[in-house]
Design goal:
Length: 607
């Protein structure tokens, strides 16, 4: 098995995990209180039926035996009444069982929906830094799984209550006749429970260790069969390499699972056989008592049934408890995820973002490094953007341009220094309110496998059903003609994930993203490589009326295309996390510095 210290740690973790149950029950109750109540009442009712049937069976047998011997006070005809009662009890049990199945199915659906919504809602509140951390992704993946894979725990909890009530009722009859008989059963079942709990913990530990491997398997499976990767896989001939890598990792998972299940089979069989000794020991004693005439045949039937039932319920109860302990271990991941709190959030006394913005944005001694790294992406940055000004950020890759705009949107907090909006630190504003005033289209914008309406409408969801607003945003991004050509127009499904979807070119997807930004009607528009996927003609069309579309708003452009940045009021060159130079295009060319060098390198390609 395991070393003693490791086993003690395992048991400690198991009992610690059981502390999750009250919180889990609150989640279950919140999902469907009426369904929980109905299912519980039906389970308690059905739990009492086995004892009642045994009592009726005892009465029937005693009447029959008395009639055969010609003795007794009951009339033989009474047996039909008791048989009718037994039928009603059995039929009632079957009906209640179907009702319990109904409530379990209802609860599974309600719980899955409620927990999935909680996971989605909570994930939306967490910092962007969380999603760029591999360890967090493992935790998020386990939390997602728990939202759907822990349904068995709901049934197990209900069965625990039902079997517990049944066991108590049967045990009461046994204890009334012979207390030691029930004690013998209990003593023989404990080792079975201990073994099941031990292997349940080992199963959880293994699943926890294999989470990164399973994530890689999922990635390889998607990579090896997706449309996006198909071209490169064919051209570079890496299909066999991906399959071999998937096979090696999957064999590692299968081997680990097989080793554990084999050990569980050997020990579980041995312990189960030992546990059955309690039942047959008690049953043999009762048969001997009946043979001696100390109890009637009816009493033997009742007690034998009670012993068999109590033995079954005890083993089931301990098995359920072990299963619940295992599920509770897994649910630790879900509860741990829900307990993660964002560092970037609104203060209790936060204020709304200004509308209109009057003074602009100011960086004061801002330095920043990403979590887990000591490398400063921005270093002691001093910078100001006036209200209504259009600023372009240029520089080589990795110089902090995208980080700059992430800080403005409070997707990250400065490591040092502060960022002010109209003279007030961004941290004083309500986060949601601040972000409503900022429209960002990143270079790696998301392509929604949804309708055109949704692809544009996500920029401002309250306008998702306002056709006129959607068409106007599409017009501003020069996507309107393309949308008008689609068979379903605004209702056309995009992407290949769902039936009837139409895929777009890179430039067309980018126009969709630009339309989202225009629909937002934000005071600050940030475009990170907004025309990277457009050809020269399309790019010229997008920026032809750019100044008009801005309408006095602040605009921050990040681009490697100098045809784009020339239209800005001011161009800022970032290098090594600092401002190396700034000014208009003509001035920077005249200075002959970094900007002029980069411009000349790009211009030379077109000569």
């Amino acid at each position: 098995m395991q070393p003693a210290a490791s086993q003690q740690t395992g048991w400690r973790e198991r009992f610690t995990a059981l502390k999750n149950l009250p919180q889990v029950m609150r989640l279950v109750w919140h999902a469907a209180p009426g369904v929980v109540t109905g299912g519980l009442l039906f389970r308690i009712a059905v739990a009492l039926i086995p004892l009642a049937i045994l009592a009726v069976s005892k009465r029937i047998i005693d009447i029959v035996v008395s009639a055969v011997k010609g003795s007794g006070t009951s009339s033989p005809s009474d047996v039909w009444m008791w048989l009718a009662i037994q039928f009603v009890l059995a039929a009632g049990g079957l009906a209640l069982g179907r009702a319990i199945d109904y409530f379990d199915a209802r609860l599974a659906d309600e719980f899955t929906r409620d927990v999935s919504l909680r996971v989605m809602q909570h994930a939306a509140t967490l910092d962007l830094a969380c999603f760029e951390d591999a360890n967090f992704y493992d935790k998020l993946e386990r939390a997602r799984v728990q939202a759907t894979d822990r349904i068995g725990m709901l049934t197990a909890l209900g069965s625990l209550v039902q079997r517990g009530v049944t066991l108590i009722s049967l045990a009461a009859g046994l204890v009334y006749y012979s207390p030691w008989l029930f004690g013998l059963l209990l003593l023989c079942v404990v080792p079975v429970f201990a073994g099941e709990s031990h292997f349940a913990f080992l199963g959880y530990s293994l699943a926890h260790r294999l989470t990164p491997v399973r994530r890689e398997l999922d990635y390889l499976r998607v990579l090896g069969s997706s449309r996006e990767s198909a071209k490169e896989i064919k051209m570079f001939g890496i299909a066999e390499y991906l399959r071999d890598r998937y096979q090696a990792l999957s064999e590692q998972v299968i081997r680990s699972n097989r080793q554990l299940t084999q050990r569980r089979l050997r020990w579980g069989t041995l312990l189960a056989v030992g546990g059955s000794l309690g039942y047959y020991g008690g049953y043999s004693y009762l048969v001997w008592q009946a043979a001696q005439g100390n109890i009637t045949v009816g009493t033997l039937t009742f007690l034998a049934g009670a012993v068999a039932g109590a033995n079954t319920e005890l083993q089931s109860l301990f098995s359920l408890f072990s299963s619940i302990a295992e599920q509770a271990l897994f649910l630790t991941d879900l509860l741990a995820f829900l307990a993660v709190q964002p560092r970037i959030q609104s203060k209790p006394d936060s204020i709304p973002a200004p509308r209109p913005i009057r003074e602009g944005i100011e960086f004061r001694n801002v330095s920043f490094h990403y979590p887990g790294s000591n490398h400063l992406v921005l270093k002691d940055l001093h910078f100001r953007i006036e209200s209504g000004e259009r600023v372009a950020l240029v520089g080589e890759n990795g110089q902090g341009k995208t980080t700059f705009v992430k800080l403005i949107a409070r997707l990250y907090e400065p490591t040092e220094g502060s960022i002010l909006l109209d003279g007030i630190d961004l941290r004083e504003y309500r986060v949601e309110d601040l972000r409503r005033e900022i429209g960002i289209i990143f270079q790696d914008f998301f392509r929604y496998d949804m309708a055109v309406r949704d692809n544009i409408g996500t920029g401002r969801v309250e306008f998702i059903r306002h056709d006129a607003a959607l068409w106007e945003a599409a017009r501003k991004s020069r996507a309107d003609e393309m949308v008008a050509r689609l068979p379903g127009r605004l209702e056309q499904m995009l992407g290949r994930r769902f039936e009837g979807g139409v895929d777009l070119s890179g430039g067309e997807w980018q126009r969709m993203a630009l339309a989202r930004a225009y629909l937002r009607d934000a005071q600050v528009l940030i475009l990170d490589e907004p025309t990277a996927s457009l050809d020269a003609v399309a790019e010229a069309e997008v920026f032809k009326n750019f100044a008009e579309l801005m309408g006095g708003r602040m605009a921050i452009l990040i681009s490697h295309r100098f045809s784009t940045v020339r239209m800005a009021d001011r161009i800022v060159v970032l290098s090594n996390g600092q401002i190396e130079e700034e000014g208009s295009h003509d001035r920077l060319i005249a200075v002959g510095g970094q900007y002029a060098r980069l411009f000349e390198m790009q211009a030379a390609k077109y000569r």
